[in-house]
Amino acid sequence: MSQSIINSTIKPFKATAFHNGAFVDVTEQDLLGKWSVVFFYPADFTFVCPTELGDMADHYEKLQSMGVEVYSVSTDTHFTHKAWHASSDTINKITYPMIGDPTGTITRNFGVMIEEDGLALRGTFVINPEGEVKVAEIHDLGIGRSASELVRKIQAAQYVASHDGEVCPAKWQPGEETLAPSIDLVGKI
């Protein structure tokens, strides 16, 4: 990536998702007005992907309680998502929208397309209610992600967004002390 995606506004898209037994249209407008996670993975019916998507499903209730919607995205179709949902116990527990991106538009918008394979890298993007990317994490295909660590990062992003002038140090957890950068703090950490 030649330019950072952090603080950029999400680009327009229109796609179809499999969500709670139905096919639904999703656009960038659906991500506005709340915190969102766009969670890219390479392909349905694979190996690491269901472990990540299942882990995200296990944390979905917590994320929703924080005002966060999750959208998983692969370059498969929404039809493939439905078939995978019906055939896998792990995927069957997913209740967040599973977006099909067969044209690769969304995947390219976020800079995670592996062009020669037509697949997405493992990319996780946290988007604030204004549609700005606040967290971007991209992994190679063999490295699975942790939804519990994502929850912590979103908690920090939400805290910083609502507490002007404060920042969250490494491993910060809700309720712990934050930092207020100032000249008096320089060299004291």
From TrEMBL:
Homodimer; disulfide-linked, upon oxidation. 5 homodimers assemble to form a ring-like decamer. This is Alkyl hydroperoxide reductase C. It comes from Shewanella subflava. The keyword Cell membrane does not apply. PROSITE patterns: THIOREDOXIN_2. It is found in: Cytoplasm. Keywords: Antioxidant, Cytoplasm, Disulfide bond, Oxidoreductase, Peroxidase, Redox-active center. It holds the Pfam family AhpC-TSA. Its EC number is 1.11.1.26. It catalyses: a hydroperoxide + NADH + H(+) = an alcohol + NAD(+) + H2O. Belongs to the peroxiredoxin family. AhpC/Prx1 subfamily. Thiol-specific peroxidase that catalyzes the reduction of hydrogen peroxide and organic hydroperoxides to water and alcohols, respectively. Plays a role in cell protection against oxidative stress by detoxifying peroxides. GO terms for molecular function: NADH-dependent peroxiredoxin activity. It is an enzyme of class 1 (oxidoreductase). Residues 4-159 form the Thioredoxin domain. Gene3D superfamilies: Glutaredoxin. The keyword Zinc does not apply.
